[in-house]
Design goal:
single chain, mainly alpha, Four Helix Bundle (Hemerythrin (Met), subunit A), 3-stranded mixed sheet, elongated, DinB-like domain-containing protein
Length: 161
């Protein structure tokens, strides 16, 4: 991957932290709405993304400091057991922005390095190098953004006219 490609990924990665800003203008009822029993609310989607960003912060640093070190995943039980519905949404969004900004700032200092040599061993995905990881971090937010948009559409469809 070229320096320009890395810079483009970094820019996209950082800008995605703003993808959820519009949620703060939605009603509490919509933010907490679950369209079906096992679906996550908008709030849970965003808190989950913040949690994953914090885990990814640790993972990418481990990949650089201690390449090929195992890292653990965490599963959906966190959403339930940590009761994301009670979390502060704005604070979580601010934290996501701060973590992403810090990561981008640091990754720019090693942009000329071969990012494929920096990797961690994910317990479910196997070996993930820094180039792959950054793309996955971007895809993760896109995935949850689609679920949030789905919740909004289903909420509107279920609301009395």
């Amino acid at each position: 991957m070229t320096k320009e490609e890395k810079n483009s990924l970094l820019q996209q990665f950082e800008l995605l932290s703003n993808e959820f800003d519009y949620v703060l203008e939605l009603s509490d009822e919509l933010i907490l709405y679950r369209p079906f029993e096992d679906a996550w609310s908008i709030k849970e989607q965003i808190i989950h993304c913040m949690e994953v960003d914090i885990a990814n912060f640790h993972r990418y640093r481990k990949a650089i400091a201690q390449p090929d070190t195992p890292v653990l995943s965490f599963d959906q039980i966190w959403t339930r057991n940590l009761d994301y519905q009670l979390s502060d949404l704005k604070m979580s969004m601010d934290l996501m922005k701060l973590v992403r900004s810090y990561m981008v700032s640091h990754l720019k200092t090693i942009i000329a390095c071969d990012w494929t040599k920096y990797a961690y061993i994910h317990d479910k995905k196997g070996k993930v190098n820094l180039e792959e990881a950054l793309s996955q971090y971007i895809e993760h937010v896109d995935f949850h953004k689609k679920l949030i948009d789905r919740n909004i559409q289903l909420f509107k469809a279920a609301s009395p006219k």
